[in-house]
Amino acid sequence: QKEVEQNSGPLSVPEGAIASLNCTYSDRGSQSFFWYRQYSGKSPELIMSIYSNGDKEDGRFTAQLNKASQYVSLLIRDSQPSDSATYLCAVNRRDSGGSNYKLTFGKGTLLTVNP
Amino acid sequence: GAGVSQSPSNKVTEKGKDVELRCDPISGHTALYWYRQRLGQGLEFLIYFQGNSAPDKSGLPSDRFSAERTGESVSTLTIQRTQQEDSAVYLCASSLVGLAGPSSYNEQFFGPGTRLTVL
User: Fold this and answer.
1) Is A32 within 8 Å of chain B by CB?
2) DSSP state of A73
3) DSSP character string of A76-102
4) Taking an 8 Å Cβ-Cβ cutoff, which residues of chain B contact chain A?
5) pLDDT beyond 60 at B1
6) B2-41, pLDDT tens digit by residue?
7) What residues in A contact B23, CB-CB < 8 Å?
8) For each successive 10 residues of chain A (115 residues), what is the average pLDDT?
9) Strands B10-13, B114-118: pairing kind
């Protein structure tokens, strides 16, 4: 099982709809979870971080974390064409040696919002 | 304040040459990270600095790759005897503190990257 898994997409939604992006992770000891947005040809931009079970809302974005199911998601309400990008899930966990933490990225989901 | 900066933004080199890539972290950020992203691929971790020590070098792909950091400031990633497979975007990120338990202080912020092309 991959450490951090995301559906590569593309996920296509109409403008104004809710886009739902999902991420699963393998290490039950993972403690911090991040969503990055990466536009084509640009570097990743942090948009949400979440550390405890439940929902965290910031504007049109909601991150949801379920540690029991090892699942984190990102909802984008009222999707806009400018939201079209690759969304990367990142998980902070201890490495196999136990002495260091490591941030592991999923390969990303390409979201396309159609006008 | 200013974000993470990287230079050069683009570098074209010939196979076998050495290259140096530079990263200036956000002021006050003690931790610095290097990643590589090949075209159409995910982010590949290379090395992590806490201050000027490197607790995790596990991602460096070969001994042709090395990195150093001066204090809690600039870092340089050096690739010796470049190969065509080294062609990628090299991304640098910094965070207020190093990776640890759940805390917003270890949120990583990325620079614009250096696009390296080895001919």
Assistant:
1) yes
2) E
3) ESS--GGG-EEEEEEEEEE-TTSSSEE
4) 33, 41-43, 45, 48, 55-56, 58, 89, 91, 98-104, 106-113
5) no
6) 899 999 999 999 999 999 999 999 999 999 999 999 998 8
7) none
8) 86 97 92 94 95 95 96 97 97 73 90 96
9) parallel
Q: Count Cβ atoms below 10 Å from residue B82 Cβ, excluding itself.
A: 21
A28-52: per-residue pLDDT in tens? 888 899 999 999 999 999 999 999 9
Tell me if B56 and A42 make a contact (CB, 8 A cut-off). Answer: no
Contacts of A101 in chain B (CB under 8 A): 98-101, 106
Tokens of B85: 């497979």
Min CA distance, B104 vs chain A (Å)?
8
CB of A52 within 8 A of CB of A65? yes
Task: Answer yes or no: are the C-beta atoms of B70 and B52 closer than 8 Å.
Answer: yes
- Count other C-beta atoms under 10 Å from residue A28's C-beta: 9
**B56–A100 C-beta distance less than 8 A:** yes
The token pair that represents A65 in the structure block: 């974390």
Task: Please say whether the beta carbons of A86 and A29 come within 8 A.
Answer: no
For residue A60, give every residue at least 6 positions away whose Cβ sits within 8 Å of its Cβ, in sequence order, or none: A76, A77, A78
Q: Is residue A104 less than 8 Å (CB to CB) from chain B?
A: yes
List pLDDT tens digits, range B30-85: 999 999 999 988 899 999 898 888 878 889 999 999 999 987 799 999 999 999 99
Q: Find chain A residues with C-beta within 8 A of B106's C-beta.
A: 32, 92, 101
